[in-house]
Fold:
Amino acid sequence: MSTSANNHAKGLALTALGGLTLTVDIPLIRLAGGDSWTILFLRAGTTLAMALIIWAVWRRFSNKAPQLIPGRAGLVVAALYGLGSVAFITGVYNTSTANLVFILAFNTMFAALLSWLFLKERPRPATLVAMVLMLLGVLIIVWDSIGTGQMFGNLMGVVSALCIASALTISRASGREMGLASLVGVVFPFALAAFMVSKTGLNVSAPWWIIFNGAVVMPISFFCLANGPKYLSSPEVAMFYLLETVLAPIWVWMIFAEVPSRNSLIGGAILIVTLIAHSLWQLHDGRRRRATLAVQHPA
Structure:
């Protein structure tokens, strides 16, 4: 298998792992049962601590450990992930979950638009079709809930989606490893949350859930997804964020006995089938193009 094929397969594996891990984020936030600033404080604080530990151990045993923040691009990416984290937590507490996940799904469109405008990476027709089908699936899931959330929370969802898409695009343009930068970026929301908590005090029912979220779930998901643009285009990586839209309602059903609606099951099936089909098509198309090149330029 060629280097290009290996890189693409690695990118698919990384982003799939990151997207799947991210699906338990909202259920863990709900299990913790706290106010928004306390949740952000504990989630960001444990994520930052774990990122520093991982980096220190990595440097101790390898001379190939990446920089925490690779240059100016890394600083911008870290800031975008930090701002996106604040907007996401704020959105969770100020609009319905259905509205939030629907709006967050637009990061695929934002990523495609930004990559097209700034990186001249025009999405292939198959990718555009896949994004349309995915957005259709999300629309089916939340059709009955659109318009029930508060405008401020909806706006925060837009901000979070745009921050993620922008961070992915900059990561793609730089070609640098941004996995640790995405984690260290939580220093911004952590500082803000620490200031607010100092005034209001901690308010959380089950802190161990949000600590587990910050120490395990966030490092794995953000590290994998932030490194995805090294191997895949930004729109492709952004599509794996939609796994949260599909699976989070299932985890909520299993944990809180909130039965998914028929629309959720239909939309979720569309999303999963589309994502799998698009990934398989990418692998097949890559092999076909390499075979064509081999025939045109035999050794």
Q: What stands out?
A: The chain has a mean pLDDT of 82. The first helix runs from residue 3 to 22.
